[in-house]
Amino acid sequence: MNKLCRQVSIESPGPTIRDCVFSFEVPVPDVPSKGARIRVVCAGACYRLRRSPSISSISSVSSTSSEISQDLSCGSAPILPPQSPVHHGLRDGALFPGYEVAGIVESLGTEVEGNEEFGVGDRVVLYPYEGVPHGYAEFIIVPELQYLVKLPDSVSLSVAAMLPTGALLAMNTVFKAHEYVENILQKRGDNGLCKILIVGTGGLALWAMRIAGHHYQTMKEKVSITVASLKDEGFLLAKEYKKVNVVQWNEDLYEKQLIERTKDACQGAVDIVIDFGTTSRSLHRSLQCLSKGGVVFISSEVAEKLLPKFSRKAEELQQCIRPVDMGSIDQLRQLVELVGNKEIEPPPHSVFPADEASEVMRKLCQSEIKGRAILEFPSPPSSRF
Question: Which of 60, 104, 355, 381 has the fewest C-beta atoms under 10 angstroms from its C-beta?
């Protein structure tokens, strides 16, 4: 008889925030000979861009729809169109596509037992390699140990669960911007100043704000960082972090007023925008705040939707839009070290039982959760495994 464990799959929420969280019971996976089996303890609340529930589940129950539940329990996936993250609450980058898992090594494969780097009981974070599982299950496998990063005692599993997608994307974006910063400062000489605007106050922007503050700490006289906050709570969160200026993008104001407010706060147009606002309106506003020859960085996940609309406009303004992918596993190792050494302070986060994933998603889409949301799986009873 196959042993079972729980799996939570979060699909991209649509305008009505319905049918985006599914709960399954799936077989506990066998340990790969060159890899490991991980007991998941914490997972960041990220979603998949397309809906493709596992059809291998023994029993499947949708957390929000009895009809979908019946379809899944019969072993056939529902035929639904791809969903886009268009809900109003997603505009601040509090919720984004990805895969974030931290846990404990439960078993090692026969060909890697006795290796010098990892052992049973080690606390690890998983790099989201291509082919990573579709959902968050209590037990997952990694085909090779190279996808794991060991955690120091100073990094909790809940903090570690924020690193593999959100923090890593933010770090890679800051690093991609660095070459532009260097070129700008080289052209402007010793008294030159490079102005960076970070848009959003969800998990992505809060990480970018902290990573940029650390990255440019020795250049703070030459690099100015401003955060454009998309909501009142985010304004307070950003203001608590003393290394940046803050301007509030109140959606009740006219675009012209918001652009003028931003330029006043930044003392003119900015050179670089890191935009995690994820919407057409946000990107359009970012371009209006950008100087001639400036660059906007956006996530590659939204680039497919936004670039066709704005590429020509950016070219006319002699600006450019650069999509950024998630960072590398070496950057993840660096990030773990920086957080573990207290050189970078993680943004606020709240931990919720994995059973409450559906309610957590609702609150995220309504921007009701401060900082990041982390799902926690309790230790399975020994009788189950």
Answer: 381
